[in-house]
Automatic annotation (TrEMBL):
<dbReference type="InterPro" id="IPR045121">
    <property type="entry name" value="CoAse"/>
</dbReference>
<feature type="domain" description="Nudix hydrolase">
    <location>
        <begin position="60"/>
        <end position="192"/>
    </location>
</feature>
<dbReference type="GO" id="GO:0046872">
    <property type="term" value="F:metal ion binding"/>
</dbReference>
<dbReference type="InterPro" id="IPR000086">
    <property type="entry name" value="NUDIX_hydrolase_dom"/>
</dbReference>
<dbReference type="GO" id="GO:0010945">
    <property type="term" value="F:coenzyme A diphosphatase activity"/>
</dbReference>
<dbReference type="Pfam" id="PF00293">
    <property type="entry name" value="NUDIX"/>
</dbReference>
<keyword id="KW-0378">Hydrolase</keyword>
<dbReference type="InterPro" id="IPR015797">
    <property type="entry name" value="NUDIX_hydrolase-like_dom_sf"/>
</dbReference>
<keyword id="KW-0479">Metal-binding</keyword>
<keyword id="KW-0464">Manganese</keyword>
<protein>
    <submittedName>
        <fullName>Coenzyme A pyrophosphatase</fullName>
    </submittedName>
</protein>
<keyword id="KW-0460">Magnesium</keyword>
Length: 223
């Protein structure tokens, strides 16, 4: 199944309004569901919610953090990466900079900033954290806490090819346009579950990355 989602008009807010709304609507309170397996991150899709309940019973919770780096160009972009093909999970997929939260990380924010530096060399002095987005659960047991951040242009990236093979920017306006949000379905143990995809040129953005971008759209553009 491959359907565009057309329930809302394309987003039209400008860069200043985007960051103003993000600052007003997001904060740095860490949700307890990041580490508590009894708290299931709800997605609004009954199949996905059922899948996450099953996963929480069978797998240990794997807390993770990602950075949503919104680059403050006159027309903002989102910095994404393509994961290395040899990785054990999500190999070759389009993703945000990020990874598991280590015991030495002071917070999920600290983990996201560390991973962004390790993966693509994005330095902290270019990053202005704005707040945490909603907790996002995956079929692999990850509980992902995304940090929305405003990134100052002019940075130089250093790709760590052990983790990612490329980094690139996608216009925020494209990602926040619901006409570009496709809904796909797949089966999980007899349960139909949906997921988002946002193909951009030769890049296939899907799964958790597209799902998190959809949550960003709903929080900043719809609420």
């Amino acid at each position: 199944m491959n359907e565009p989602l057309l329930r809302a008009k394309p987003a039209t807010i400008n860069s200043a309004e985007f960051f103003a709304r993000a600052r007003a609507r997001l904060d740095f309170e860490v949700p307890p569901g990041l580490v508590d397996p009894h708290i299931i991150p709800r997605t609004g899709d009954s199949g996905n919610d059922r899948m996450l309940e099953i996963v929480a019973r069978e797998q240990p919770v794997r807390p993770a953090a990602v950075l949503i780096p919104v680059v403050d160009h006159p027309e903002p972009t989102v910095l994404l990466t393509q994961r290395s093909p040899h990785l054990s999970s999500h190999a070759g997929q389009i993703s945000f900079p990020g990874g598991k939260i280590d015991a030495t990380d002071a917070s999920p924010l600290d983990a996201a900033l560390r991973e962004a530096c390790e993966e693509v060399g994005l330095k902290r002095n270019f990053i202005e954290p704005v707040g945490y987005l909603d907790l996002y659960g995956t079929a692999f047991g990850f509980r992902i806490l995304p940090t929305v951040a405003k990134v100052k242009p002019g940075f130089t990236l250093e790709i760590n090819e052990a983790e990612v093979v490329d980094a690139f920017e996608v216009p925020l306006a494209f990602l926040m346009n619901p006409e570009n949000h496709q809904i796909h379905t797949k089966e999980f143990r007899g349960i139909d579950r949906s997921y988002y995809a946002m193909p951009f040129a030769e890049r296939y953005i899907w799964g958790a990355t597209a799902g998190i971008l959809r949550v960003l759209y709903e929080r900043i553009y719809l609420s």
